[in-house]
Amino acid sequence: MAVPVAPGTVAFCARHGYGAVVTVERFPSPDAATVARVVGDGLREGAVVSIEANCEIEYDGRSGGYLAPGDRLVVCKPDGTLLVHRPSGHKPVNWMPGGATIKVEPGEDDDAPLLYARRSNPNEFLRVYLGDVYSVSRFDATDAVEYQEHGTEAEMHEYIEANPEDALEDGIRILEHERETQYGYLDFFAQDAEGTPVVVEVKRRQATLNNFDQLKRYMELYRESNPDVRGMLVAPSTSDRVKRALRDEGLEFVRLAEFDVETREASETTLTDFS
Amino acid sequence: MAVPVAPGTVAFCARHGYGAVVTVERFPSPDAATVARVVGDGLREGAVVSIEANCEIEYDGRSGGYLAPGDRLVVCKPDGTLLVHRPSGHKPVNWMPGGATIKVEPGEDDDAPLLYARRSNPNEFLRVYLGDVYSVSRFDATDAVEYQEHGTEAEMHEYIEANPEDALEDGIRILEHERETQYGYLDFFAQDAEGTPVVVEVKRRQATLNNFDQLKRYMELYRESNPDVRGMLVAPSTSDRVKRALRDEGLEFVRLAEFDVETREASETTLTDFS
DNA sequence: GTGTTTATTTCGGGG
DNA sequence: CCCCGAAGTAAACAC
Lengths: 275, 275
Hints:
Chain A is of the alpha+beta class.
């Protein structure tokens, strides 16, 4: 499966259906010129480039920061994303969201090569001084499929719209979904069995004080003209504080147990369920 | 600089002060047993393990999802973080936050090895079926320094506390910082030149409708006892809709131009500024 | 632990 | 483009 590649590199082949293709090329202890070439060519040609290096970082833009030298994993994507990961933590310590322009300036003489990312709106930049590059890897990744997600707020909306009486209360009718008002977007505008209008705000997770605020904001508009309008905060659960705040405002909490992630045990489905 | 390693692997040395140390070990086209060993040993011994592979992913927990096979970069950290990155986008398509237990089950016969991460509270899991592993890399990263950040909301608070008259208005006095109330935490509680109390909510970025809600919530408490209490939303900018909402409620917007990231051009400081 | 808020939030949808 | 709101938000911090 060996494929000819530039001397000094290590190439691995993929078992692609259409024959052997070099998918990953790895450059051990590359010099500055090699780093610049691999990053430049790789990103231009649509590959993901990962760098394991000891580096020093400067960021300035929406905030500013400095990170003294240490070992990090740097990931560059062809869409202009740059991520710097430390050995722990979910979030990168520094990053640039997609859309940035990434380039490498090979350092002069003994200088560290500089990985530089810049973008505008907002104006910001990231400088990664690659003091000691252990390894660079070019990954020509092909990944076209779409991620399929379920259990989102959109699904909860669909459920409520399809089963308002089960989800909310007997006799309720949905009049509008995602209604735009002067104060923002209502999730639902409904009418109860007595014909009283109901403003409905839906949350997929435990409802917070901010969610209560949001419902209250929407209510203002309707209470002026009709003091009897009802307001419902619909969620799998909420805190006592939020319940009290709702009660004080004459608003209601509607528990949607069907969507409670804690009671609904992780289902351990197998891949066959998806096929 | 060569260091003896297991046959079939590629090892790169770091120029560490205390002598040659294998920092990165790379395993091209590893079999399932090698993947299991490298991930297991690596994570246990505190290394970051990166995998370039064609894989298929299942997630279930707070939401649920499925991603059909494609080429992705998988990063495993010793703190139990797992990230799956596609060739574009800032956020991983799937992940597990720190604290998860990560293990690899070598697939039987021709089965793909399974990278499995699980955690509780909330209960969730991630399954990564490594159908075609192009390369695995073990990175014994040493990174102890702390990230230094500036331009945070905390700094904005310090500025306001130190220069309330410049930041807010002439004659104003800060009485309390981070005051706890029944309805949450006020950023500042102040008093204007006439002795009227002022509730101050500070945002580092453009203020949103939600921020307006928050200020309004804090105001309720004080308006009961003193209808003349003033409310200020302090931010570098905000939308017209928020300004109108504030006006309708008798609240004020205070623009803090000093912290506007758009007007304050990225400063292009050099590393010497930090030393 | 739970509750609340921030974030270099990122992301997507609609006007 | 901006505005607005969701997110498997994660992380920090108070209680």
